[in-house]
Amino acid sequence: MTPNQTELYKTTLKLLTQRGVSLDAIADLVMFLQKDYIDHLTLAECRESVQVVLRKREIQNAIITGIQLDLLAEQKQLMSPLQEIIESDEGLYGIDEVMALSIVNVYGSIGSTNYGYIDKIKPGILAKLNAHEPGIIHTFLDDLVGAVAAAAASRLAHAHPEEDSY
Ligand code: MG
After folding, report:
1. Cα of 96 to ligand 1 centre, how many Å?
2. From the CA of 163, how far away is ligand 1's center (Å)?
3. Distance (Å) from CA 144 to ligand 1 centroid
4. Is the pLDDT score of 57 beyond 90?
5. How far apart are CA 92 and CA 145, in angstroms?
6. What is the reported pTM?
7. Is residue 52 part of a domain?
8. Domains in the chain: how many in total?
9. 165 within domain boundaries
10. Average pLDDT, the chain
11. What is the pLDDT of residue 163?
């Protein structure tokens, strides 16, 4: 039986929390992306936008898939060579970025611009996820979190068309 929408949303939030990513940490990234473009933007608005994004089925699917692969890699459960590729966060792999783009594309081209930018700067939680601490694998999670923030930021940009966002 396929899980219902509420269950999937709860599971997504639970998995993110278990992997050390809070809603507020993602909201901070949204603020980082949009603060110069939307006057008086509040953290509450950023958080709300993240929640809306996380309610989308295709985005939940990407998150639960990516986190599962990170976890299996930590447990050394993947087949070779995928195990080594994900374990070492190999630069040429690229499927983590493809998964991230499937998230940002939901909100149009502004989303991929935002994602490219945040992936390069790696502010806040993204720096932490990219630390490559021994035994901890965030090959997918860093891209997924950046993508959710980029998507949430794009939503806000579309919601404030009167302000010259881009
Ligand atoms: Mg990655």
Report:
1. 5
2. 32
3. 8
4. yes
5. 20
6. 0.94
7. yes
8. 1
9. no
10. 93
11. 59
